[in-house]
């Protein structure tokens, strides 16, 4: 029987903390738990910030956060779990970026921290105190890391790009209306 080292304990704590926070945020979106708004309210919010359709976007974000977070906490399918959570946090960061970095000003600090931690876990692996280790790393192969992160990065870029186009179009439309009202 081997002794667990500091790295295994550190990864366990990082997985439990990061995964737990992500899972709770996902449960807010999906089920309305922990003071969340559920799919209906979150869908309306998602639509208001440019993610359309709102309910589908809320479902995708909720599943990525709740599912990715739970899997990270368990240390199961760590590359895919970390990539999914990181993609969701990139989407959240895009919404908060106009408010700057710090969360106290509505910035992207919290989302970026969770996304980076999830990415780091996807790359580093879950450690020996994990289901991936117990199952012989069937869902945690080296080739899965770049594949999961690459696919997620591509999908996230498309989703955020489409969202940014919708936001720009909305702002330009509002500016056009204001300009027309000014001319009258």
Automatic annotation (TrEMBL):
Chief location of this protein within or outside the cell: membrane
Gene Ontology cellular component terms for the protein in this record: plasma membrane
Membrane topology, as annotated: Multi-pass membrane protein
Protein's cellular compartments: Cell membrane
Domain of life: Bacteria
Any matching Pfam family: DoxX
UniProt KW Transmembrane keyword: yes
Spans traversing the lipid bilayer: 143-162
Keyword Cell membrane: yes
Keywords for this protein: Cell membrane, Membrane, Transmembrane, Transmembrane helix
InterPro entries xref list: DoxX, DoxX-like_oxidoreductase
Family, similarity comment: Belongs to the DoxX family.
Name recorded for this polypeptide: RpiR family transcriptional regulator
Lineage, top ranks: Bacteria, Bacillati, Actinomycetota, Actinomycetes, Kitasatosporales
